[in-house]
Design goal:
Layout: E1 8-10, E2 13-15, H1 21-32, E3 39-42, H2 49-59, E4 65-68, H3 75-84, E5 93-94, H4 102-111, E6 116-118, H5 125-134, E7 139-142, H6 144-147, H7 150-163, E8 166-169, H8 176-185, H9 200-203, E9 209-210, E10 220-222, E11 232-233, H10 235-241
Parallel strand pairs: 2-3, 3-4, 4-5, 5-6, 6-7, 7-8
Antiparallel strand pairs: 1-10, 9-11
Helix pairs in contact: 1-2, 3-4, 5-7
């Protein structure tokens, strides 16, 4: 229905802000063993330059690495600091400024080689057109839930791809029902970076889909192809985990 081919999707590891850099490094080391194709770490003022120094020292320059600021930085106060992140050879800096700060994002994008990715800013086709017009980013993170469903996500992918923006598929994260739909759209040609969708076991003791999402030793999620078993909701698991039920009749 989406016009997307089946195949495999590269999966990336996302890690948050921790109490110590040692904890951050241990968490990355623990999950890199599963084969993830890149690492994304959250950054914020006071948790940015030093953690990146330690990550590069521990895992080397060849580790595909990106950062996500979730709009935590102020242009006037932090512009020079964000420019200094160039030295870490990052894949991208995601959402450095507030969602509506497109002019500031454009200026940063024009000032550094590291690509700027927008996430929270890209909540609709209307705002995407503003991003394109202002040259506010080179990369787009599309989240199906944030933009209002699969059809809107596909329209935004098509528009971004037409405008030369590279895309990747973000996550909240969510249960397997949503993740498998997102994986389907992530096979469209504009999605060229590893997705944030990870193995079911990364987030859940159990998931309510069958089979669960798994990562190969090489860091890919293999999607079922036509004629083979597809992901489906496991009714027994769904019943087991229900905490409240309401029935409606026509």
């Amino acid at each position: 229905m989406l016009g997307a081919p089946s195949g495999k999707i590269a999966s990336g590891l996302a890690v948050g802000i921790y109490d110590s850099i040692d904890e951050l490094l241990d968490r990355i080391a623990r999950y890199l063993k599963d084969g993830y194709k890149r690492v994304k770490i959250k950054i914020a003022p006071g948790w940015d330059f030093e953690p990146l120094v330690e990550v590069r020292m521990r895992f080397g320059e060849k580790l595909p690495l990106m950062v996500d600021a979730n709009g935590a930085y102020n242009f006037d106060e932090h512009f020079d600091l964000l420019c200094s992140l160039e030295e870490f050879g990052l894949m991208m800096i995601e959402q450095p400024f507030a969602a509506d700060a497109l002019e500031e994002s454009a200026e940063l994008s024009h000032s550094i080689e590291t690509p700027i990715c927008l996430d929270e800013s890209a909540d609709s086709l209307t705002t995407l057109n503003k991003i394109i017009k202002q040259h506010a980013a080179k990369i787009l993170n599309i989240k199906v839930q944030r933009v209002g469903g699969l059809w809107n996500a596909k329209r935004m992918h098509d528009r971004a791809h037409e405008a030369g923006l590279k895309c990747w598929l973000g996550t909240m994260p969510e249960l397997g029902i949503a993740s498998t739909q997102a994986l389907a759209i992530a096979t469209l040609p504009g999605f060229v970076f590893p997705t944030d969708i990870e193995a079911s076991s990364r987030w859940f003791v159990d998931d309510i889909i069958d089979p669960p999402i798994t990562i190969t030793s090489k860091g890919f999620i293999d999607l079922p192809s036509n004629g083979s078993k597809h992901y489906s909701t496991n009714p027994e698991k769904l019943e087991r985990y229900i905490i409240q039920k309401k029935e409606f009749s026509r």
